[in-house]
């Protein structure tokens, strides 16, 4: 199937609400981190949101690390 | 048992755990802890992927949310330990108003700021790149300059057109005010034909961006750090005289 349209892909195939809800921005050890839920109570670090370059050396907040809350 | 007694065992537990792990470390490695790095006096603001404004993009998009960055910029301005800010850009552009908001915030910081364009600083990335005191671009990085566009449903075409025209004027004014490029040259690049297949605009590569006066110099991390330290030095000298 070919869709020839000026609309964006997300206008035709809207993202499900639960996909948005999977991602959360929370504070871990005083640093703001974007997390993705893997299962109940267990989250994977997607991105660290910090301006302090030293925070990026913190092993426990590297992208891909699993955090349980 | 009083409430106080109940709390006590909980409070002691982490201490005991800490002590035992400390003892273990000393036994195993002969050291108590790895020295921690001192707090950095330079902070970094990375603007990656799309600049996300009023509309939340689906999670598969890599975005920089301006509501995350603006409090960080305020924190950088307020924290006396932070002496300088580096803005790292690798963005395809995005929401014009969010991008302009970020640019204005960065331009109004009292501390020295330096930007580096790595890979791409397209579209609304251009005003963000020029908003700092000094801007750098990697030799291979590019910046696309093009007129403002709008996707989605438009209600009231003439009004929207006028609004967009004003918005574009704001972008042009900001860029020409904060960089050495002339307004005529910037507009010429913006409305150029034949550079982007069947589209208007220009894709400016690193060295050309410097040639046109859009960006101050070619460089990467080393140059940016040197420049920022120089600006921090000047800033502190200025304070001492006062």
UniProtKB/TrEMBL annotation, chain A:
<dbReference type="Pfam" id="PF14035">
    <property type="entry name" value="YlzJ"/>
</dbReference>
<dbReference type="InterPro" id="IPR025619">
    <property type="entry name" value="YlzJ"/>
</dbReference>
<protein>
    <submittedName>
        <fullName>Uncharacterized protein</fullName>
    </submittedName>
</protein>
From TrEMBL, chain B:
<dbReference type="InterPro" id="IPR023562">
    <property type="entry name" value="ClpP/TepA"/>
</dbReference>
<dbReference type="GO" id="GO:0006508">
    <property type="term" value="P:proteolysis"/>
</dbReference>
<protein>
    <submittedName>
        <fullName>ATP-dependent protease ClpP protease subunit</fullName>
    </submittedName>
</protein>
<feature type="region of interest" description="Disordered">
    <location>
        <begin position="1"/>
        <end position="22"/>
    </location>
</feature>
<keyword id="KW-0645">Protease</keyword>
<dbReference type="Pfam" id="PF00574">
    <property type="entry name" value="CLP_protease"/>
</dbReference>
<feature type="compositionally biased region" description="Low complexity">
    <location>
        <begin position="9"/>
        <end position="19"/>
    </location>
</feature>
<dbReference type="GO" id="GO:0008233">
    <property type="term" value="F:peptidase activity"/>
</dbReference>
<dbReference type="InterPro" id="IPR029045">
    <property type="entry name" value="ClpP/crotonase-like_dom_sf"/>
</dbReference>
<keyword id="KW-0378">Hydrolase</keyword>
């Amino acid at each position: 199937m070919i869709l020839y349209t000026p609309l964006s892909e997300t206008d035709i195939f809207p993202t499900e609400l639960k996909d948005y809800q999977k991602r959360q921005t929370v504070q871990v050890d005083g640093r703001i981190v974007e997390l993705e839920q893997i299962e109940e109570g267990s989250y994977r670090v997607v991105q660290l949101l910090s301006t302090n370059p030293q925070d990026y050396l913190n092993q426990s907040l590297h992208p891909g690390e699993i955090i349980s809350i | 048992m009083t409430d106080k007694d109940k709390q006590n065992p909980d409070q002691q537990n982490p201490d005991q755990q800490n002590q035992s792990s400390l003892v273990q470390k000393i036994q195993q490695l002969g050291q108590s802890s790895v020295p921690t790095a001192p707090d950095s006096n330079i902070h970094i603001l990375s603007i990656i992927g799309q600049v996300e404004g009023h509309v939340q993009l689906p999670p598969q998009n890599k975005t920089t949310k301006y509501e995350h960055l603006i409090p960080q910029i305020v924190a950088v301005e307020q924290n006396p330990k932070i002496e300088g800010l580096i803005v790292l850009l690798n963005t395809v552009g995005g929401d014009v108003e969010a991008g302009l908001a970020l640019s204005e915030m960065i331009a109004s910081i009292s501390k020295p700021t330096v930007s580096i364009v790595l890979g791409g600083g397209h579209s609304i990335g251009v005003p963000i790149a020029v908003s700092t005191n000094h801007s750098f671009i990697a030799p291979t990085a590019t910046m696309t300059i093009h007129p403002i566009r709008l996707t989605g449903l438009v209600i009231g075409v003439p009004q929207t057109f006028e609004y967009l025209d004003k918005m574009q004027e704001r972008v042009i004014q900001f860029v020409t005010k904060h960089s050495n490029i002339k307004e005529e040259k910037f507009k010429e690049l913006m409305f150029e034909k034949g550079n982007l297949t069947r589209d208007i605009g220009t894709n400016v590569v690193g060295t050309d961006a410097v040639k046109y006066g859009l960006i101050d110099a070619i460089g990467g991390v080393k140059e940016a750090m040197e420049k920022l330290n120089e600006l921090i030095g000047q800033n502190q000298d200025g304070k001492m005289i006062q």
